[in-house]
Amino acid sequence: MPTVLRIGPYRLFFFSNEGAEPAHIHIEADDRLAKFWLEPVACCESIGFSAKELGVIARIVDEHRETCLRRWHEHHGR
């Protein structure tokens, strides 16, 4: 589970075995978890985050999208 970034309470990471899926990032904070597609940035799964917090996370993912994409492609060899 390579960690891409830590911002405030959020850890942005991906799983090594998900290279067949479109580029995405997982976000966790405590026992809450979300998954965002990176092209375009969109929430596709969420457990425990409020709608307001998902908005904050979406802005973070959008702001760091290029870093997340670069790390995804480096790791998955694309």
How are the SSEs ordered, and which strands pair?
Layout lengths: L2 E5 L2 E4 L10 E6 L2 E7 L2 E7 L3 H13 L1 H12 L2
Antiparallel strand pairs: 1-2, 2-3, 3-4, 4-5
Reading the helices and strands in chain order gives EEEEEHH
| Amino-to-carboxy terminus distance | 18 Å
Radius of gyration: 11 Å
Question: Total number of β-strand segments?
Answer: 5
Summarize this structure briefly.
With 78 residues, the protein is an alpha+beta fold. 32% of the residues lie in helices and 37% in strands.
Structural notes for this entry:
The protein has 78 residues and is of the alpha+beta class. The protein has one domain (3-76). The chain is built from 2 helices and 5 strands. The protein has a 5-stranded antiparallel beta sheet with strand order 1-2-3-4-5, with helices on one face. A hairpin with a 2-residue loop joins strand 1 (3-7) and strand 2 (10-13). The longest helix has 13 residues, at 51-63. It is globular, with a radius of gyration of 11 Å.
